[in-house]
Design goal:
binds adenosine-5'-diphosphate; binds magnesium ion; 10 helices; Rossmann fold; about 260 residues
Length: about 260
């Protein structure tokens, strides 16, 4: 069953066709990776889904709702969560307070309650922090955390909103390779457990092949391939695109094949 159905999505900026007639579904419980070289249209696609941009053409169906024309806040309220490329935590607040704040916002309680009720949602916040492996750092201020730890807090904040679909545009940008794999494995475990679907972009093919259940490939605003990680890895057009962009895709693909054999 499709959680999200994108159909005929197009968006131009002046003469640049950032997205041309892109259609795909995100199925329940899947981790769908959207890959493609820089400028392929991935962020534009995410922004058309989350309401930051209005597509020129096409529809984005989420359950019974058409998301096109709704504000980012309305879309987020309907259950489309996202993590941010620039971390969106309050630096002077503690890790636990950031998650509590997200819970207060999710349950539409007034932030004015905050000074009176710092114990509000404490237990739930700690549950979420333990799910992302950050319970030990619950009382630290976010502005002293390592970057990778902040990403884990961000995931807990996103989960506080109980999304049905999570959009992650380059969630591991700026992280070391081992940290990237860990963050996506953590994400995969949490979303599987809760039955949440994920659409993510990622440059690191090791992370993509390790965690995606399915992959779609964009190039110059068009969808050029779609399939299982094995199919996409062996797709000659995909290898061409990545070679053309000067990437080590083919080397990575054959290394993975060797590892599988
Ligand atoms: P990706 O995320 O795959 O790297 P983007 O969606 O950011 O690609 O960009 C797709 C194309 O659209 C690029 O050519 C980019 O320069 C252009 N583009 C994206 N956003 C804007 C914008 N706000 N104004 C003008 N051009 C844009
Ligand atoms: Mg992008």
């Amino acid at each position: 069953m499709a959680v999200l159905s994108v159909s005929g999505l197009s968006k131009s900026f002046g003469g640049v066709h950032a997205l041309s007639d892109v259609s795909f579904d995100v199925e329940a419980g899947e981790l769908l990776a959207m890959i493609g070289p820089n400028g392929a249209g991935k962020s534009t696609c995410f922004n058309c889904i989350n309401g930051q941009l209005k597509p020129d053409l096409g529809s984005v169906r989420f359950g019974e709702h058409d998301l096109v024309g709704r504000s980012p806040r309305q879309i987020w309220r309907l259950g489309v969560g996202r993590t941010f490329q620039i971390t969106a935590t309050f630096g002077s607040m503690t890790v636990a307070e950031n998650v509590q704040m997200a819970l207060i916002s999710h349950h539409r309680r007034s932030r004015a309650l905050w000074p009176l009720a710092s114990s509000l949602y404490m237990e739930r916040a700690h549950e979420l922090l333990s799910a992302v492996g950050m319970q030990d750092q619950a009382e630290r201020r976010c502005n002293v955390l390592a970057y990778g730890d902040l990403k884990q807090v961000e995931l807990a904040v996103a989960m506080a909103h109980e999304p049905r679909l999570l959009l992650m545009d380059e969630p591991t940008a700026g992280m070391a390779p081992t940290e990237r794999i860990e963050l996506m494995e953590l994400t995969a475990g949490i979303v599987r457990e809760r039955g949440i679907s994920v659409l993510f972009t990622e440059h690191d093919m090791d992370v993509v092949f390790a965690n995606a259940t399915r992959i779609i490939v964009l190039n110059r605003g068009r969808m050029v391939a779609e399939g299982s990680p094995a199919d996409v890895r062996n797709d000659s057009m995909v290898q061409e695109i990545y070679l053309g962009a000067g990437s080590t895709f083919r080397a990575q693909a054959s290394a993975l094949e060797a590892a599988d054999a």
